[in-house]
């Protein structure tokens, strides 16, 4: 008989992850703010819950994939939160993109309750989640990492261990998202420079994406930026801005100036200020660069 | 019998290029400011010249690979310059990293003299030049490009045609160098953030370099930055600063603000101001980030 | 018989303000974290209290002048906080430099308790406070402002009313501190530019301070910056950084990019990162500019 | 009998200066690119010239007030330029806002010709020029400064001597214009922050302009910025951008990063890119800040 897992958060990322768990034979106790979304998972192996606490009851593992620090904190420590029911020795696998400070704070609360918290943020778009191709970054104590490993292995193409400090994996996630945003900004500046000088943005993008910058980020985002292809909306500018804020905040708590973080933070803040918060973040960045260039 | 080519400039890049031409059977009329460097090419097929004009006399092609706009302009239009002797219908293949404005200006002078100017800047380090692995970006009129093609084909792994506007390839070269600098800055910020949070810079660099950022720039420079390995000096900070100035200048003439250009320009200007001009540009960028972070 | 006022916070600013109130005949119930500091006020008219709650008991007015949002929040809402004892209809005059969000939040709590909160941050250094030369910015409801007016009038040279939105005066205070920091940065850049070009920093500073920029900020800070006179420490770099963070945070919640805020924020963050947090903020800014210039 | 002075350049600043010289009894040999503008000076004491050379012939002093380095260089060294006719021992009083490098270069050419070059850039708007209220910054050799003094004294309220290095006064002029632009940017950010938080921009501006920032720059520009009063066009954004470029260039040749110069440079470059080059620079800056804020 397969394990039952608590699962909280059926957003763009949570849904394909939950489906993969079901396909692998796990049973899920699922909570989502909009309860009707749970129906998308089908009824096979799914128990619908009315709160995070209900989803976390009587299981060895609960997975959360939520939008930000506040929602995660509320879902964990609030009235109907995970910690209300989580058994001693159970593990909370926390996959959301949050600050390391929140991770450390929650880890401490779990420890006090006798349970464990595992930071496990991921890289990859929803398609990658569906294809079990996520890169899963983890950090925390050895025993917790070992226990959670079989579950993580069935969700991604690699699980990378960033040590025993709880928030370590969160730092890596924030650093990576920063690098993605900085790459978008860099490409938008370079390709708009090319455009302003009479060159073909697409040709320039293809050249770099197939030579010095032959990496997924530069190929996939590069194509969208070069073509100014801003539909469909995959990841919203306002969520990108949230991540830029996490990076900025981390530069403050880490006591180090990060001028490139400033640039992407301001780019996305401007997008939000101009009312482009609901656009794809590729548009938020690329249109901002074009706009300032008078295009 | 093989063609004789004029060749001007035996720096880190010019020397391996000249050697490859000799190996391919071309004869070279060579000029270099420090004449003794010409001896490194051996005597087989080499004619030592006292001026660019002498090197450009009686040939169909002259190649120049020089340090900056000023040196190229002087070597072309000065008293002993290429234009003093270049035959009508001959082609000047200009491989230096210079501004598109200088390229346009020189192209006009060649045209007036009945000869042709071909912008042909390259991407690749000296090792790539030696291995005939350069990416050669060209722009200019069709006939000139066709004529020069056989020579270029024996120097690089690809020749990419960026259209008929003379300075087009120079814009691509400047944009590319900007993207390299911006990538270095981005990595230095991200890996120092990781370090400040107790993570292993090298592990973080290897993770990104093998996943989302699996491209040569992020692998090669990433390794140097993560390890703070600043020796040997490949490309000097002061030359990197020269390239940052070219990018900044181009953002001005193109009338577009480029905040990321500002960041890398200031980073390298700071390096020069602090007396680090002779260090490798990896050090100029990475040490600057560490320094500001109090490390 | 004169009114008794609760008074909380005997820092650089609070102490001269408290002394002026005593000199004007008010009785004070005083609390300070380091209790011994209360002795500096003398015993005449002073009641020493063990908590903010004790200081706020049985009075019509309580004044707080504290270091930051967190300390004010704790002193107001904590176990021994002001709200534990503050009478209905009494007024809390809050002079600290804090975010408008905290002001709004505290105002609501006072309202719920039947008392009033008045935002009353001030401009002026400790000497100005001692000389009753402060500029006091206020915002809040009319009745509260009218009630507090006699007390405020005896502390400053002007009381400026910025309307009825609680946090309004806090926005003005943050904007003003930002303008001071930006002026310091601007002067440090300009005078260092002069120095690097062989001019006399002091002469240049005196010229601008007596002509186009003939205002206190440019004269007083200008003299310190031009002379690189960093002693004695008046206002610490780490406190300046706190204010820069308030400005940055406000640019976020106001949804507007403020590039000059970025500059001063990074300047002071760098000072803190380099271990200069305890220096005067003039040093934090000016030495940072010199340092980057290789001086 | 009064001296005859050569005068070149009847722009917004040159015209009132020329009128004052005439009113003081000097005779003028005047050249202006648009010759018809010379008629505005009346015929009394005015000789109309066809070239700078003609204006500079047979006089002890020639004054130039031109738009930029290129125009001054052409007017001085070109075919019909000043140096073609300027007598040995005569003095060229150069009042334009130009780079110190151009000043040094021209000073050398004058010296070779036996004449002298005096850097004498000014602070003040056209109204100040008309009222003889300019601040005139000078630098150069003692004898030249002494000789020119009587003329300068009748044009401004003060002549400030910045030493014997030719370009010194030009550095001060560029530093001052930078400080003006930075002040405009700072005010636009602060007052827009106030606006976004429901405050009255004008009240906030008046408060700062009458207290901490009670200086002409903050009062005059502050009023325009607070009221978003962008008409009439006094000084064009594209000319402001030219000055920002001078400041940026000087930061490069001085080898020092100046982040605030970056900010104002980008602000005005954006204005030019967006097609606002002909607007007043108050609009170029202030509208840019509002625009990014989504207002």
Automatic annotation (TrEMBL), chains A, B, C, D:
<keyword id="KW-0560">Oxidoreductase</keyword>
<feature type="domain" description="3-hydroxyisobutyrate dehydrogenase-like NAD-binding">
    <location>
        <begin position="167"/>
        <end position="281"/>
    </location>
</feature>
<dbReference type="InterPro" id="IPR036291">
    <property type="entry name" value="NAD(P)-bd_dom_sf"/>
</dbReference>
<dbReference type="Pfam" id="PF03446">
    <property type="entry name" value="NAD_binding_2"/>
</dbReference>
<dbReference type="GO" id="GO:0050661">
    <property type="term" value="F:NADP binding"/>
</dbReference>
<dbReference type="InterPro" id="IPR029154">
    <property type="entry name" value="HIBADH-like_NADP-bd"/>
</dbReference>
<keyword id="KW-0520">NAD</keyword>
<feature type="active site">
    <location>
        <position position="173"/>
    </location>
</feature>
<dbReference type="InterPro" id="IPR015815">
    <property type="entry name" value="HIBADH-related"/>
</dbReference>
<dbReference type="InterPro" id="IPR006115">
    <property type="entry name" value="6PGDH_NADP-bd"/>
</dbReference>
<dbReference type="InterPro" id="IPR008927">
    <property type="entry name" value="6-PGluconate_DH-like_C_sf"/>
</dbReference>
<dbReference type="GO" id="GO:0051287">
    <property type="term" value="F:NAD binding"/>
</dbReference>
<feature type="domain" description="6-phosphogluconate dehydrogenase NADP-binding">
    <location>
        <begin position="4"/>
        <end position="160"/>
    </location>
</feature>
<dbReference type="InterPro" id="IPR013328">
    <property type="entry name" value="6PGD_dom2"/>
</dbReference>
<dbReference type="GO" id="GO:0016491">
    <property type="term" value="F:oxidoreductase activity"/>
</dbReference>
<dbReference type="Pfam" id="PF14833">
    <property type="entry name" value="NAD_binding_11"/>
</dbReference>
<dbReference type="InterPro" id="IPR051265">
    <property type="entry name" value="HIBADH-related_NP60_sf"/>
</dbReference>
<protein>
    <submittedName>
        <fullName>3-hydroxyisobutyrate dehydrogenase-like beta-hydroxyacid dehydrogenase</fullName>
    </submittedName>
</protein>
